[in-house]
């Protein structure tokens, strides 16, 4: 009889563990369904991007925003580093001017993302969450501003790549989830 009880206890434990995993995974999937209003592509981008961070398995909606901001910050830093490498080898005064402007914009973007991250880490306070959303709005469009500067000031295409432009997608994703949290009163 004791082996049967032990076996049933193990089965119950396994079922509870599986249920917990499913519940956590569904938070990510449910959130991505809610904010993926642009269709399957938005949903897939959301799940792929946030799911790449192991912490997403345990995160609530606000935790998913924190993950998205962390990814956005890493992307902005990587692009800033790439711009610095381009600056180091640039000989054209016009391109150098545009690269300087882009470098300044990305440095500011990293600072804004850092402040948004601090506001989100404070959690619950609606004023801080609203401030984080405002900062994310400022970040949105950073790659496009750099692209536009190249066209206007240097008369050529931007050296930014698709990877550099992912900043916008991740920032918009963070904003959508954060707005959902604010609308639902998630604290």
From TrEMBL:
Gene3D superfamilies: Invertase/pectin methylesterase inhibitor family protein (1.20.140.40). GO terms for cellular component: plant-type cell wall. Residues 1-25 form the signal peptide. Keywords: Disulfide bond, Signal. GO terms for molecular function: enzyme inhibitor activity. One of its GO terms (biological process) is plant-type cell wall modification. PANTHER family: OS02G0537100 PROTEIN (PTHR35357), OS04G0587200 PROTEIN (PTHR35357:SF24). Belongs to the PMEI family. This is Pectinesterase inhibitor domain-containing protein. It comes from Triticum aestivum (Wheat). The lineage of its organism: Eukaryota, Viridiplantae, Streptophyta, Embryophyta, Tracheophyta.
